[in-house]
Amino acid sequence: ESSRYLSDLFTTLVDLKWRWNLLIFLLTYTVAWLVMASMWWGIAYLRGDLHRAHDDTYSPCVANVYNFPSAFLFFIETEATIGYGHRYITERCPEGIVLFLFQSLLGSIVDAFLIGCMFIKMSQPKKRAETLMFSRAAVVSQRDGKLCLMFRVGNLRNSHMVSAQIRCKLIKSRQTPEGEFLPLDQCELDVGFGTGADQLFLVSPLTICHEINSKSPFFCLSQRSLRSEQFEIVVILEGIVETTGMTCQARTSYTEDEVLWGHRFLPVMSLEDGFFRVDYSQFHATFEVPTPPYSVKE
């Protein structure tokens, strides 16, 4: 498993938490600087430049490098293209020229990898999902004479979610007629695939509706059986962020304890001075309505 993560190192770094990314960023540059400075110091030491650095008649590999701190400063000046002019490579040092080329290539690779990783991580649209709201609970009540499972979604920002689409998965354990036990069986909940109701124009809070009929996995669900059921409804909202053009996904889930039978969501929109006003303080509020306690099958 570790080798698979390392084979895709870039994605692994992007998926890490910010504190680990910053630590790797600092350690990589610090270690690379120390190693390269040590190589410059090693060349000066092997050539004897450290002992004859103050000899005006001697031509060293790097002028004015007397010890490790001066070698480190020379590397930083070269890498950051500062060039104070006090330390420089002379033409009588082929190994220094080769090391300079290696340093330039290695620095470009490290900069492209780490800075690209940080840029991708900062531009990820995960935080956009924080302003997409889901109701804390789902409700079961009648709409247009049909028993429906409903929940509410909303967008706090003024910018739209382009091509927003919603999907629902029912996760529940079951046993097949052959005796095979499926601990996390996934079943799709129809929230308007045939009618296009799953394509959302999310300019105001919307109530997503799943009609409970003979094709629904909740066909036999009643108010009494709801207390003994064990399931989870996973809701996935996907869309394109209007400002960046990147795909964003927000998720939530409802367990059997978060499904309220015989409830309806409180209205949150009102017309004031010719404009619609949304009161998000009532976004999660519900109230009881008369609902038959029987399943659709019953």
Secondary-structure-based class equals alpha+beta
The CATH topology annotation of the largest domain reads as: Immunoglobulin-like
Tell me the domain tally: 2
Using the CA coordinates, give the radius of gyration. 32 Å
Could you say which overall geometry the principal axes of the C-alpha atoms support? elongated
Supply the number of helical segments: 6
Mean pLDDT across residues:
87
Quote the beta fraction.
Answer: 25-35%
Largest β-sheet summary: 5 strands, mixed
**How are helices and strands ordered from N to C?**
HHHHHEEEEEEEHEEEEEEE
What is the count of β-strands? Answer: 14
Task: Tell me the helix content.
Answer: 25-40%
Q: Please identify the top-level CATH class of the largest domain.
A: Mainly Beta
Low-confidence spans: none
* Full CATH superfamily name of the largest domain: G protein-activated inward rectifier potassium channel 1
End-to-end C-alpha gap: 50 Å
> What CATH architecture of the largest domain would you give?
Sandwich
